[in-house]
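Protocol check, entry for the methods section draft. Step 1: assemble the input record (protein sequence plus ligand SMILES). Step 2: submit for complex structure prediction. Step 3: store the C-alpha cells unaltered in the notebook. Ligand used here: S-adenosylmethionine. Step 1 record:
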Amino acid sequence: MYALDLNPDIGAEGRVLFLRAQEHPALEHFRSRLTCQQTWKPRAAQLEAAAYRVEREAQGKFPLVIVLPDPQRDLAVADLARAYDHLADGGVLMAAQHNDAGAKKTEQHLKEAAGAVETLSKHHSRAFWTVKEAGKPWREDVLDTWRQRGAMRRVMEGKWWSQPGLFSWDRVDVGSALLVKHLPKDLRGHAADLGCGWGFLSAHLLRECPDIDSIDLYDADGDAFEPIRRNLGIIPTRVKTRPLWRDVTAGIETARYDVIVTNPPFHDGKTTDPTIGLRFLAAAAAGLKPNGQLWLVANRQLPYENFLGEAFEHRETLVEQNGFKVMHAKGPRVQALMKEPRGGKRRPR
Ligand SMILES: C[S@@+](CC[C@H](N)C(=O)[O-])C[C@H]1O[C@@H](n2cnc3c(N)ncnc32)[C@H](O)[C@@H]1O
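Step 3, stored output:
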C-alpha cells in the first residue's frame, strides 16, 4: 500500500484485483473498483465483514493486479503466474512480500519472466512491480512451469489428489496415520472432520465405518475442496458428504454430531499457536450430541488433557507413539459448562 501511495499513477483508474487479499485501511481508496481473492476463510471473512467483494477464484482481466505471494515457493511462483493471467495488456502487476518469506527470491522470479522490475524496500519487506506491455509477452515457458508447480495433481503413486500448500500435501501425516489405526469400525451416525485437509480421515471413515450416515468436512483452506471432491468421489458409498469452507474457531453446527475426528492445527499461518487446537476442541465439544464422541491425534507436548477433562464426562489417551498421542473423549459437558448460574449461586465448573 505504501508503494501504491508513492506511485499514485498506478491503479488510478480501472478495476483492481487483489490476490491473497488481506484487509487494510488503504483498500478503502479502491473500494468500488476492487475484487479481492482469498482462499483462507478467516481472512476472507474479515474482508467480507468490511463489505469488500471477495471471491475464492477471480475471473477476468484487470489493469492492476496486486498479489501477496504465499511464502511456500511453489505457490509463490504459481501466484505470480496467476496474477499475470489476470493482467490486462498495459496493466501493472505488483507483488509484496516480507523479506523473511523470500521477497528477494520472488522478485528474481518475476524478473525472470517479465524482464525489468521496479522495487521498493521498506518495513523488512519488498514491493516490486512491472508492466505487461502490449506486444511484449512474458516468457511463456517460465510461466507454464510456475502454473504447474502450484497445480493440483495426483500424489502418492496416484492414490490421492492434492496440491502444494495443503497440510502434508504429498504424504499421509504420521499423526493421522496413527489415529486411523485406533478408530473403531463401529462408529455410527453423523460425523464431522474438523480441519479435514485433502480428506484423509474422512476417506478412512467412508471406507472402514459402514454405520456412518454422513460426514461434514470443515476446513478454512478453500484449496482443499477440489482434491476432497476427487478423493472421496471415487469411494463407492451411500454416505452423504458435505464440504464446508469454514473457520472452525468461529464455531460449527451445535449438538449435531455423533462422531468428530480431528488432527487439529497448531499453527495460525506462520506462527505456532497452541490455543488454536484448544479452540478446535471447544468447537468439537459444542458440536457433539450429548452422547457424542471425539477422536483426535496431537503432538505429544500439546496440552489438551485439562481441557478435555473439563469439557467431557470421560477422556482417555489411547496411545503415545512417535511423538504423537491419540485421544478419545465422550459426553460433552459444554452445555452444562455454559449454563447461566442460577440465583447468583451456581457457578459454571
Ligand atoms: C494438522 S492439519 C490436518 C489435515 C487432515 N485432517 C489430515 O489429517 O491430514 C489441520 C487442518 O486444519 C485446517 N485449519 C487450520 N486452521 C483452521 C481454521 N481456523 N478453521 C478450519 N480449518 C483450519 C488446515 O487448513 C489443515 O488442513
